[in-house]
């Protein structure tokens, strides 16, 4: 048989189990504890206490009489502590006798944290209960913290392992994709060469109508476009680099070489290319030349129909925008600007222009494979740098590439 005290139960109230075979003792102890806003549950025997603990385990303290019929306090405590959920609840034994050392040892062995003697001193009861309740709360809080930390550490380890697995899978997928792109583009070269060769042979076989000539020229042009697309894809798939590939290079020579390669287009369009003094950087010369070749070539390609096309290349030493930097944001960067007076583009398309095969214009309006800027982005990432752009429609574009400064 057991009883619960009535009254308002506060959210953070402490539950205490009081076990005694005498009702007057139960009422007296519960009355003292209620004035301290503790919630008490009363049991009139050891068996009654065990029955309560089968249903309720959220007690912060147990106050238990030693001398009880059928099952004494020590025996009850031993059975309580056999359950894993109950083994940390402190027990204070209450006794009417002054026990010898052997009985005291038996009590502590059974799980006692302290003893109180009858008649119970109310002030001493309040002090001891408050002390052990607070100790129990701190112990529980620490255990929860340890459990949460262990769970958090386990979760972090699981996430790290998953991240490692994902990175390995991503690396394998990228390598497989590079191999596929290389093989596919390489194998496409041969049939394209044959199409061009047989088209030229047909053109050389005379006589035939002007209409046939026109169709064959279209076939040849389409083949040339396809071959350029394959070459760009092949070039894109080959960009794997190692640390040993980087050397200190002067960008002035790199840009001049790119301009020489574009000499025919520059002469045809009367493009003016102005190059200010440029810095030395650690880079892979052939790849950086490809970047400038693509960016200057784009400036010529996306020129306005009227006026003289102009390209201005210059450098500044400055801190790049945080969102563009790969790696340490504290590194000083050289920003190289490639500015033109062409048709430009709307700012909302800034991210799109660096996506492979993404085009803002029809091929029939402006030729190109849609790979050039993607190649530039990939090369700049391999250089621990960045590429971005600023533009307004019909008001030119400025491409900015950032490279770590040579110390």
Question: What would your notes on this structure say?
Answer:
With 407 residues, this protein is an alpha/beta fold. Among the domains are: 2-120, 3-Layer(aba) Sandwich (Rossmann fold); 243-404, 2-Layer Sandwich (Heat Shock Protein 90). Helices cover 48% and strands 18% of the residues. It has 10 helices and 13 strands. It has helices spanning 23-34, 46-55, 73-80, 101-110, 122-204, 210-237, 251-261, 263-269, 285-301, 372-382, and strands at 2-4, 15-19, 39-43, 61-65, 91-95, 112-117, 247-250, 272-275, 280-283, 310-318, 333-340, 386-391, 397-404. The protein has a 6-stranded mixed sheet. A 5-stranded mixed sheet has the order 8-10-11-13-12, with helices on one face. Strands 7-9 form a two-stranded antiparallel ribbon. A hairpin with a 5-residue loop joins strand 12 (386-391) and strand 13. Helix 5 (122-204) runs antiparallel to helix 6 (210-237). The longest helix is centred in the middle third of the chain and has 83 residues, at 122-204. It starts with a strand and ends with a strand.
- Helical content stands at 40-55%
Which sequence of strands runs across the widest sheet? 1-3-2-4-5-6
Second CATH tier, the architecture of the domain at 243-404: 2-Layer Sandwich
The amount of beta strand, in percent, is 15-25%
Q: Give the C-alpha Rg.
A: 42 Å
CATH fold assignment of the domain at 243-404: Heat Shock Protein 90
> Number of DSSP helices?
10
Give the integer mean of the pLDDT values. 81
Order of helices and strands: EEHEHEHEHEHHEHHEEHEEHEE
């Amino acid at each position: 048989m057991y009883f619960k005290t009535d009254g308002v139960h506060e959210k953070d109230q402490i539950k205490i189990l009081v076990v005694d075979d005498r009702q007057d003792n139960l009422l007296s102890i519960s009355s003292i504890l209620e004035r301290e806003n503790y919630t008490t549950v009363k049991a009139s025997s050891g068996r009654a206490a065990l029955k309560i603990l089968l249903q309720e385990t959220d007690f912060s303290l147990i106050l238990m009489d030693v001398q009880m019929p059928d099952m004494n306090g020590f025996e009850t405590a031993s059975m309580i502590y056999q359950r894993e959920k109950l083994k940390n609840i402190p027990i204070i034994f209450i006794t009417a006798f002054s026990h010898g050392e052997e009985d005291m040892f038996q009590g502590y062995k059974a799980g006692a944290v302290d003893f109180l003697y009858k008649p119970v001193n109310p002030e001493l009861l309040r002090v001891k209960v408050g002390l052990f309740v607070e100790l129990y709360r701190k112990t529980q809080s620490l255990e929860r913290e340890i459990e949460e930390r262990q769970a958090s550490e386990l979760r972090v380890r699981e996430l790290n392992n998953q991240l490692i697995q994902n990175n390995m899978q991503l690396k394998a997928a990228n390598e497989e994709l590079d191999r596929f792109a290389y093989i596919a583009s390489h194998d496409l070269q041969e049939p394209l060469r044959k199409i061009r060769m047989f088209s030229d042979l047909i053109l050389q076989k005379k006589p035939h109508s002007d209409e046939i000539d026109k169709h064959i020229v279209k076939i040849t042009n389409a083949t040339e476009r396809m071959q350029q697309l394959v070459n760009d894809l092949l070039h894109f798939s080959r960009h794997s680099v190692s640390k040993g590939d980087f050397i200190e290079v002067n960008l002035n020579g790199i840009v001049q070489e790119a301009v020489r390669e574009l000499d025919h287009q520059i002469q045809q369009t009367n493009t003016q290319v102005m190059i200010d003094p440029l810095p030395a950087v650690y880079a892979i010369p052939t790849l950086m030349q490809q970047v400038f070749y693509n960016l200057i070539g784009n400036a010529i390609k996306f020129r306005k129909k009227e006026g003289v096309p102009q390209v201005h290349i210059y450098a500044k030493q400055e801190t790049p925008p945080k969102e563009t930097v790969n790696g340490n944001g504290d590194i000083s960067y050289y920003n190289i600007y490639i500015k033109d007076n062409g048709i430009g583009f709307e700012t909302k398309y800034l991210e799109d222009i660096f996506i492979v095969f993404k085009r803002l214009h029809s091929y029939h309006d402006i030729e190109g494979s849609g790979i050039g800027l993607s190649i530039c982005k990939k090369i700049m990432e391999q250089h621990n740098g960045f590429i971005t752009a600023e533009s307004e429609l019909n008001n030119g574009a400025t491409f900015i590439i950032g490279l770590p400064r040579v110390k």
